[in-house]
Every structure is written in C-alpha cells, then in structure tokens.
Amino acid sequence: MHIQKLEVLVEVAKTGSFSSAGQNLHISQSGVSQDIKKIEEELGVKIFERSRSGVVQTIEGSKIIHKANEVLLKYGELIDEARKVLDIHSGNLRVSTIPAFMTHLIKPLMEFKNLYSNLTIEMSENITELTVEYIQQNKAEIGLICLYEDLLKNIENLHVDKIFEGTMKVYVSSDSPFAVKKTITPEEILQQDIVLYNGDYIKWFSHHFQNTFGKMNILFSSNQTEELSRTVSTGMAITFAPDFAIRNNTYLLEGKIIEVDLMNYEPIDVSLGLIYTKNRQPTKIEKHFIKFLKSELQYYIN
Fold it and tell me: CA-to-CA distance for 68 and 293, rounded, in angstroms?
C-alpha cells in the first residue's frame, strides 16, 4: 500500500468528509473516494460508514486509522533520517513540463518540497520542443514530456526515462453510441465534430491521421482541459488523448465521458517520460528527484 493512501485515510478520518479531505490534499473528491474503496478492498475491512452528513469510522476502522497514524509518524522519522544521510539541505531545481501534466506534478512537488524545505523548485510550462530546448541549453535540469517515435529520433543526446507506456484513446459523451460500442474507426471519426488539446503530441497525431485518412472536422483546439472535457460530455464533440493523461479526469471518473478504443490505425502508442542532459552527471538531489518523481507519478496517475 502506498504511503499517500494512508495520508488520504487519515485525512478523511480527521475531517469526516471526502470533499474536505480532497481539498486539503489537493485531490478530487472522486479520487479520495476511490482511494478509500481500494484500501477497504485491500484490507478486507469496512473503515467508514457513509451518510449524507459525511463519513463515520467503524469500530474496526478506528483501529486501522490508529495504526495508519503510527505508520505515518514512523515514515516522518524515516524521512528525517534520509535527510541526514543524503545531507541535502538547500539548492535549486528547475523543472520544465508540458502543460497537460502540471496538475499531476503539483502533489509530488509538494511532497518533495516537504522533504527539503530549503530547496527552491522552479516550474515552467512549455511545449515539448521548448522543454527539450531548455534541457539542452541548461535552462532546466528535468523535463516531463510525451514521447513518440518522431521525437525520440531528435533527442538522442538526452537521457530518457519512460514512466508510462500508454495508448492514444478516443473520448466521447456517455450518451454517444460509441460509449456502448467501445470502439471507433478512422472512417467514423471523420463523421464527428472534434475538439483537441493544443499540445505537441496531439498536433503530431492529428497531422499524421489527416494525412492518412483525410481532413477532420476540428471545432477548436485549447489548452483548457476543463473546457474540452465539458464540450465532450455534452455530446458536442469527441476528443483524443493518451490514456495516462486523462486517467484522473473528473468527467471520466464520474462517467460523463467514456474511453473508446481507436481501431484500424497506427501509430497509437505513446509514453510519458523524463528527460535530462547527458553532458554532465546529475547532482545528488537531481538523482533523488528523478527516482522520487517516477515513483510518485506512478501513484498519482494510476
């Protein structure tokens, strides 16, 4: 069980509310609910009773929560000891990421900052090409980008650590016939209105798709994922996205939009990855951050 799940468990017990716990931990209410459900399933114990006024600990649950608090206390002691061993007290760390993953980075960055309170972390949102340029020109130490075939050919001078192997999916309204069918073909896509996230990989994918099958009816492109999700949920359009990029999307978790497989088309494989320079050895804190971020993103995106 991941330590963050214990933090969610304890926060729900403290606040008596999924929504308040989510606000305090910067997690969606549905994400908190899913975490509690997974913990209860994993332990085989009913920890909370749900009601309109909030949640109440069961007798068995109060014992679990007491132990969870003890584990978190020991974890804090472990972190303090790790600080002494690593002897990392201050420094600067510059991270560049594509905008779509800024929300996924907030919680891990807060956790890392808690480990090293004197560390200054500078975050910048950039398109993939600019993130690559930042790493190559030493304007950032770590980059987070989508990795795909054409891009990999142009970044052989950088270290690349893949975090997730993903697949391009299509997302439709829950009222769409494709939500029941669970598949869609390129020919069917050409008959739909489409909204797109304004990112490098999506641009590359849509360009490749249209060169193969013809022009799509694109209503608009935007960096606003909330607006894109809302538009899809109303049935006005469909959209594309890597499955890992939208996994924690509130509209998806609440069943307002549905994930659909794209049939009879390649390439649809895409990865999420960290990049950093080969021109020098990473510092101790950079090495620790890379390991930490890979581990934390596995939790927050899964």
Answer: 23
Query: Is 65 in contact with 13 (CB distance < 8 Å)?
Result: yes
pTM of the model: 0.67
Rounded mean pLDDT for each run of 10 residues along the chain, 302 residues in total: 83 90 84 87 89 85 90 81 60 85 79 79 88 90 88 87 89 96 96 92 91 96 91 96 85 94 86 90 85 77 59
**Coil, strand, or helix at residue 192?**
coil
CB 297 within 8 A of CB 162: no
- Domains of the chain: residue spans and CATH: 3-85 (1.10.10.10), 90-302 (3.40.190.290)
Name the DSSP letter for residue 254.
T
Distance CA 205, CA 222 (A): 15
Residues present in the chain in total: 302
Contact call for residues 135 and 277 (beta carbons, < 8 A): yes
Question: What is d(CA 21, CA 85) in angstroms, rounded to the nearest whole number?
Answer: 33
Nearest 5°: CA angle at 163, between 21 and 206?
A: 100
Q: What are the two backbone dihedrals, phi and then psi, of residue 175, each rounded to the nearest 5 degrees?
A: -90, -5
Residues 6+ apart with CB under 8 A from 98: 125, 126, 127, 128, 131, 144, 145, 146, 199, 200
Q: How many C-beta atoms surround the C-beta of residue 150 within 10 A?
A: 10
Cα 237–chain centre separation? 23
Rounded Cα distance between 212 and 199, Å, is 20
